[in-house]
Amino acid sequence: MPAGELRRVADPTDTEAVRAAFIGTYGTASETADAATLVAQYERVREHCAEHPNQGSAAVASALDLPRPRIRTWVDNDGRPDAVRGLDRLTERGWLHLGWDDPTLRALAGLIVWTVVGGSLPRQGWTPAFSVADGTEPDIERLGDVLGLEWRQRHVDDDISGAEWVPARDGSVLGRLLAVLGAPTGADEGPSLPPWLLLDAPRAVRLDAARVAVRQRGTALDLPTMPLQLGLHRDGRREAIARLCRSVAPSDGEVRVDDGGNIRLDRRAAELLAAAPLLDGFLPR
């Protein structure tokens, strides 16, 4: 069956919701079972096999009233549904159980914003790609370090689109997770940041996320009152990033969208959002 409709979670710290939405991104070869059904059946099979280690696939299928062709490799050859493989990698990476004070969530929020201002996340293959502004390579390396990721570059010799940074391993797992957490995918239009990032996330999470946007899209201006500008073409993305920046700007700072559709930051806001390393104080995994 093809993958079901992409579900975004309202709370990234709701592990069960994240798990269910992540499973929903997988399709199956079965005409009668979606990915969630296969995961549940696989877990039943593994529990049964733990209690009856000497039973083969025929006996297990009969005991659980499941089609033997579906479960044969699960029992006899240690096979797994694709969604289970993805969940296993998600758990092994430490990306499933998220907390508001967790550097993992802060790094994921940074990559969500990076997808908005300078990245792509196709639903075909699910591997995200990030364009990196000159001089900000340490930023994406830092986010990768916190997530335990290594990067590789592609299109290095492409003078038109430029080089992109993609995960060296588990790219589709990361992409599926970013999508269910609220990162825009190739088919998305309109507002582009998840509500939890704008409304519920602690200031530390929002601050790192806003710094990603400013450092990737910021351009210095020769204006003493408004020294930094961000250019974003899509209205929904522009308004979302402006709102994120305002949420962490100093009380005496200003973030506004000018008549030309550019986000302008005054000196106080620019000093805060363009400075300091991302996730300062957190050690790499």
What would you say this structure looks like, in words?
With 285 residues, the chain is α+β, with helices and mostly antiparallel strands. The chain folds into 2 domains: 15-93, no CATH class; 103-273, Endonuclease I-creI (Roll). The chain is 47% helix and 9% strand. The chain contains 12 helices and 8 strands. β7 (255-257) and β8 (262-265) form a beta hairpin. The protein starts with 14 loop residues before the first helix and ends in a 12-residue tail after the last helix. The model has no long low-confidence stretch (mean pLDDT 91).
Summarize the structure.
With about 280 residues, the protein is of the alpha+beta class. It is built from 12 helices and 8 strands. About 45% of the residues lie in helices and about 10% in strands.
